[in-house]
TrEMBL record:
RCC repeats lie at residues 115-168, 173-235, 236-289, 290-335, 336-383, 384-436. Keywords: Repeat. It comes from the Eukaryota. This is 7867_t:CDS:1. PROSITE patterns: RCC1_2, RCC1_3. Transmembrane segments: none annotated. The keyword Acyltransferase does not apply. Pfam families: RCC1.
Length: 437
């Protein structure tokens, strides 16, 4: 029996037809416990839109204003010829402007695990890694040309570019990029500048993964903005590449030109950096000591200080997690409080949509992780509940069942006993990696 397929099919049927009591939650949970070898099976939910309602209609990723459970085995079986798949386990997720990446581990019958990366969304610059480009239509499938015998370390998406960081048995990591590199954001040493004087300028992009060879240090983290990329190495050095006009590369005064290879951000010499985040044209860096640094575009007051080089943020709390959107920033303290600043729906009510200083979000507590899309935010509590707020938009990207703006955090509704572990916030869609109690 294909246990995973049967369980997910029944679970999806029960969610779609809740009034049919013979497929109630108790029956599903009993079936699951009987046949599953683990009570911590990964579940993947999707909401919002990666295209239009027309080009996603009838697909597994059809536009939705509320979380929809994705049938992982069906997603895999319809796109890859592997017999006897017994388990599909999601390990990593990432979302960009209108595309996402999902890393799987497949367990065929009596065979060793196989690692695959699935991508879906728009593919105008090859950002899905399918070896093709397509301007306007929804696409989905597996990323082609990936190295074998590697383990996925992380996934990252920008506006039109993507990265997969692989770890090897020797402890070293290899970074592969694909998609648009018009501004040099893939770090291959190529950009639009190479064709500036050509009579027929062309789109500079790579539709299949290619290894980033222009940096010798071991890369451990990647953060993608719209058109720039920040790399963190094992030695706690930061490198930047791509679009630099707004200071998002953090290279200092008179250094706002684009970079097509990783360029060292010297401000952090001998610092110990825990996390880097970016979404649009600005970046936050969280150090091991809880200090917070930021740089990039601050025209909408999400940073409120100099932008051309990293500048320390004055906060009165120990910061444990950070997020940054298009016009706002957010951080989580060591006691689980959330603070936001900038412009927009900050979670402070419709009477406070602008603040130069971080203000505590009163309706949130016991939070462990914060995420930001360009126009909205998401927070996961220690108990695995998800809260969202911000600009709703026609896609329903907040996952709240409507398209309205949300000025205070609201809990996203999932099936009973679902625990949210991670969220990837795209521009108009989101995906959540969950487990079941």
């Amino acid at each position: 029996m294909d246990v995973t397929y049967t369980f997910l099919d029944y679970r999806f049927f029960a969610m779609s037809f809740p009034t049919l009591t013979k497929f109630n939650a108790n029956l599903i949970n009993t079936f699951y416990r009987k046949y599953s070898s683990s009570n911590q099976r990964k579940l993947l939910f999707y909401w919002g839109s990666v295209g239009s309602k027309i080009n996603t209609h009838g697909t597994l990723l059809e536009t939705s204003t509320s979380p929809r459970l994705l049938n992982l085995v069906k997603l895999v079986k319809t796109r890859i010829e592997i017999d006897g798949i017994e388990d599909v386990r999601v390990t990593h997720i990432a979302s960009g402007w209108a595309h996402s990446l999902i890393a799987f581990k497949l367990k065929p019958h009596e065979n060793k695990e196989i690692a695959k990366v699935f991508s879906f969304g728009l593919n105008s610059s090859g950002q899905l890694g399918h070896g093709t480009t397509n301007d306007y239509n929804f696409n989905d499938g597996f990323v082609e040309g990936l190295p074998s015998n590697y383990t996925v370390h992380s996934l990252n998406c920008g506006r039109l570019h993507s990265f997969i960081l692989f770890s090897k048995e020797n402890g070293k990591n290899d970074l592969f990029g694909f998609g648009c590199t018009m501004y040099g954001q893939l770090g291959f040493g190529e950009s639009k500048q190479d064709f500036f004087y050509d009579e027929n300028p062309k789109l500079v992009c790579f539709s299949k993964p290619r290894r980033v060879n222009s940096i010798e240090e071991n890369i451990v983290q990647v953060a993608c903005g719209f058109d720039h990329t920040i790399l963190l190495t094992e030695n706690s050095n930061l490198y930047s590449m791509g679009w630099g006009a707004d200071g998002q590369l953090g290279l200092g005064n008179n250094e706002t030109s684009d970079r097509s290879v990783p360029s060292l951000i010297r401000k952090f010499h001998n610092s110990h950096i825990r996390k880097i985040v970016s979404t649009t044209d600005s970046t936050l860096a969280l150090l091991d000591n809880g200090h917070l640094w930021s740089w990039g575009n601050s025209e909408l007051k999400n940073l409120s200080f100099k932008i051309l080089e990293p500048t320390k943020v004055s906060v009165e709390h120990k910061v444990v997690d950070v997020g940054i959107g298009g016009s706002f920033s957010a951080y989580v303290t060591d006691i689980g409080d959330v603070y936001t600043c900038g412009y927009g729906a900050l979670g402070l009510g419709d009477g406070t949509i602008e603040s130069l200083k971080p203000i505590r979000v009163p309706d949130l507590s016991n939070i462990k992780r914060i995420y930001c899309g360009p126009d909205y935010m998401a927070a996961i509590s220690a108990s695995g509940e998800l809260f969202t707020w911000g600009s709703g938009g026609p896609s329903g990207r907040l996952g709240l069942g409507h398209t309205n703006n949300q000025f205070v955090p609201m809990k996203v509704t999932f099936p009973q006993d679902v625990i949210v572990e991670r969220v990837a916030c795209g521009t108009n869609h989101a995906i959540a990696l969950c487990t079941e109690r």
